[in-house]
Amino acid sequence: MSLKERMVPFTAGDGMALNLINVRSATQPPKQGPIILVHGAGVRANIFRAPEKETIVNALIEAGYDVWLENWRASIDFPANTWTLDQAALYDHPYAVRKICEETGYKTMKAIIHCQGSTSFMMSTMAGLLPQVTTIVANAVTLHPVVPAWSAFKLNFVVPLVNMLTPYVNPHWGVEASTWIAKIMTALVKLTHHECNNIVCKWVSFTYGSGFPALWRHENLSENTHEWLKEEFGNVPLRFFQQMARCVHKGNLVSVEGFPELPSDYVATPPKTEARFSFFCGEKNRCFLPESQEKSWAYFNKLQPNFHTFHRLPEYSHLDIFMGKNAARDVFPIMIEELSK
Questions:
Q1: In the prediction, which pLDDT does 302 show?
Q2: Has residue 339 got a pLDDT over 90?
Q3: Per residue, what are the HEC states of 251-266?
Q4: Are residues 30 and 124 in the same domain?
Q5: Is residue 322 part of a domain?
Q6: Do 297 and 210 reside in the same domain of the chain?
Q7: Do residues 212 and 265 both lie within one domain?
Q8: SS3 36
């Protein structure tokens, strides 16, 4: 498929310069409305476009959607900043959605959200800041973060220690360790992770989960994608991990900035949204356990029975749901079917 893309800048609510990448067929105009894709922490919008024959972006375009990839403040395409989920929820996603509506003329849209793009987008949605979004496919974690025991230990004890030494960690230090703390931590990663020969892959597992690897299953990745990942991870602030530690301890998302527009506790009051959710998770996810999504689905299903859906994919983990070599066969059709409901 021949594609064309354009970068559309937008300004976040606090003045930060962000952007959207609009991807369309070069020959056929979209037959359906816009859909926004929201990446996770310490990556960028490009994470949805692994070097596979078919990506989720291709699949959505073939299904007729007008695809918009959001680079929010956690994107490694921007200078490192000590972002929080609150900032993204209040300042980034509502302004990105508003910009897409302005550009397309549509009043409503759909969304595919992943990991911390998912948690922060969920915060926006629960606060009533995204009334334009009608259907949301959410992967890995949304309202109820549940992590393995080793991850909880790292959040509670390792993060405070590392935060005394550096405001960020960066899996790309495995390729380029420019400071003494980067060199020491890379040596620690090499000492403790032996699952493959890709140092960034090892660093990602050290940073984000408890598995070997944590964010994918090696058998689900092609060699090209496994190598490509070396350039797709960057700085992530310890401040984010501190917020996630509070969320994990509480059992659901909580705010940390005190913004009046956002709830302090996201299950304490009913959600201010009429959107339909489809919750996805990999059975073998070692970043956020499948119970994360199961709990979120149960919460919404209790409020509106048989309206929302839950998909637990037995042979997948975290990011391989989007970049796995067989994801176009195993995952994308289910997501597109959910979007069409």
A1: 98
A2: yes
A3: CCCECCCCCCCCCCEC
A4: yes
A5: yes
A6: no
A7: no
A8: strand
DSSP string over 64-88: T-EEEEEE-TT-TTS------HHHI
Q: Say yes or no: 139 and 154 in one domain.
A: no
- Beta strand 309-313 with 109-114: parallel, antiparallel or unpaired? unpaired
Total number of domains constituting the chain: 2
CB-CB contact of 294 with 146 (8 Å): no
Contacts of 194 (CB under 8 A, 6+ apart): 212
The answer on pLDDT for 69 being more than 90 is yes
Residue 165 and residue 47 in one domain? no
66-71 vs 17-25, strand pairing mode = antiparallel
**Within this chain, do residues 137 and 196 fall inside the same structural domain, yes or no?**
no
Map residue 120 onto helix, strand or coil. Answer: helix
Residue located via tokens 């509070």: 246
Beta strand spans in the chain (E) = 3-11, 17-25, 34-38, 66-71, 109-114, 133-139, 168-169, 236-237, 276-282, 309-313
Question: Strand, coil or helix: what is 175?
Answer: coil
> Chain centroid to CA 275: how far?
19
Determine the structural domain holding residue 325 and report its residue range. Answer: 3-144+256-340
Q: How many CB atoms lie within 10 A of CB 337?
A: 12
The backbone region for 128, taken as left when phi is positive above 0, alpha when psi lies in -120 to 50, beta otherwise, is: left
The encoded tokens of residue 22 equal 């609009």
Residue 127 is part of a domain; what is its CATH number? 3.40.50.1820
Q: What pTM, to 2 d.p., does this model score?
A: 0.97
Q: Do 103 and 196 have their domain in common?
A: no
Burial class (CB in 10 A: 0-12, 13-18, 19+), 65: buried
